[in-house]
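Work Package 3 (structural annotation) set out to generate three-dimensional models for the target panel prioritized at the project kickoff. During this period the team completed the workflow that converts sequence records into discrete structure tokens, so that structures can be stored uniformly alongside our sequence database. As a representative example, we reproduce one entry of 198 residues exactly as it appears in the project archive.
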Amino acid sequence: MNADNVFVISGIACLIAAVVGGGLKAFGIEVPALKSLVRQIVLGVLGVILIVIGALHPSDTTDTKTRRPPTPRTETATGLSRVTPTIVGGPISVNVNNYPRVVQAGGTTDISVLATARDGSVIQNARVVFSAGGGAFEETGTTQAMGYTNEKGVYRTKWRTYEAGAYSGNMSYRIGVQVTKEGFDRGRGTIEIPVRAN
């Protein structure tokens, strides 16, 4: 049931309640909830308004389904053959790496994320969201960063530790990665980045 039907049905119910309340009064029966003439008038006006809204409101049930475009075909010496498209749907595989692997306190590391489909093909223009347990991403200055994979299915960013004086010993930070793209299941990955105190 869409919103238009809900408005119309609610409006009709209000009108019926207003009419029934007044009609029953003619027979000497009063419904306590509809006892007041003001309530009957308000119910009647509300019913008319809801019916008008339901009738004038554009329907949300129009067919908005889009058909998949036909798979491109290429001419070959043997006739027509299909081009193998990237498989749409399924999970996104997330591969996260960083270099240098161990970061000196106060230093930076390059983090790269590779997003691939279940057939191994790269996923372009996928949204990549980072969430670090500390330090900061250079482009945002916070523990959060976001970007999109390139034509090779890769997104790169730089992450830095806190200032060297903030560390009394070696430690590590966990960085979580989520990769999303319409038509695919969300992919997740993590990387643990060791930090060596000076």
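Confidence is low (pLDDT under 50) at residues 60-67, 74-79.
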